[in-house]
Write a structure and sequence with these properties.
62% helix, mainly alpha, globular, two-stranded antiparallel sheet, 12 helices
């Protein structure tokens, strides 16, 4: 009788039902993401948040969840809401810090997030190389639309949507449909941890997209791979794990 084959190891991209973020309700993830962005200085006092619909789309939750989260954050002193035509939801002038206990879930999952960033970095480099070899007018036009949308974005939610469009265009341009599924799985998991960023930072980061587009147009695969890899790896510095010391000092 032949020995039994060892059980296959779980794929590293498999969803882990025990991660801290998966034990947190949708309402509390919205509270935590906005509160953590405030704690880290990614959102400044007085900064206006996107409207309910845009925030719901960017954070992958329902509009009712966002409304309830905004109400809770106002009671917790993180945001304040103004009625009227020029109203909306704004970061409080003197926001309270460390008031949302659920931010701990994001810190608990920091090792998982770093792994997801590394996986995305590897995939982005490969897609960039092959997209440069196979670039066509349709791909470049799609990149131009995404770049223009990011230049015109007035909120992090609008920028986030255009940013996803840019990277999806690069991925499709590589012509590797089977690998696309892996990329979508990695980014889908990573976007669960997405935090709002300041528009000043995002506008500067769009220059990196323009440099990537230029490398693809020049069909310079190695350069496109390096630029995309560095662009993805930057998340190690800018996401909340890299800023945790700042948060603890507040």
């Amino acid at each position: 009788m032949e020995p039994e084959a060892p059980a296959a190891a779980a794929h590293p991209l498999s969803s882990d039902p025990l991660t801290a973020i998966r034990r947190t309700s949708a309402l509390d993830t919205v509270r935590a993401r906005i509160s953590l962005a405030v704690d880290l200085g990614l959102l400044a006092p007085g900064e206006r948040l996107p409207n309910v619909r845009a925030t719901a789309s960017a954070l992958g939750v329902g509009e009712i969840t966002v409304r309830r989260a905004f109400g809770a954050l106002e009671r917790e002193g993180v945001v304040h809401r103004r009625p009227g035509r020029n109203g909306g939801t704004f970061i409080a002038d003197r926001p309270r810090h460390h008031t949302v206990a659920e931010t701990a879930a994001y810190r608990e999952d920091s090792a998982r997030v770093r792994r997801l960033i590394d996986e995305r970095t590897v995939l982005e480099a490969g897609f960039g190389h092959f997209a440069a070899l196979r670039v066509d007018g349709g791909t470049l036009a799609g990149l131009d639309r995404a770049i223009a949308a990011m230049d015109d974005a007035t909120t992090w939610a609008e920028f986030h949507a255009a940013d996803r469009g840019f990277h999806s265009t690069v991925v499709r341009g590589a012509g590797l449909p089977d690998a696309c599924a892996m990329y979508e799985q990695v980014t889908g998991e990573l976007y669960r941890y997405f935090l709002p960023y300041s528009m000043d930072y995002l506008r500067v980061s769009n220059q990196e997209h323009k440099d990537i587009r230029a490398a693809l147009a020049a069909q310079d695969g190695p350069l496109a791979a390096r630029l995309l890899s560095a662009h993805a790896a930057e998340l190690h510095r800018t996401m909340y794990m890299g800023l945790s010391d700042r948060a603890e000092d507040r």
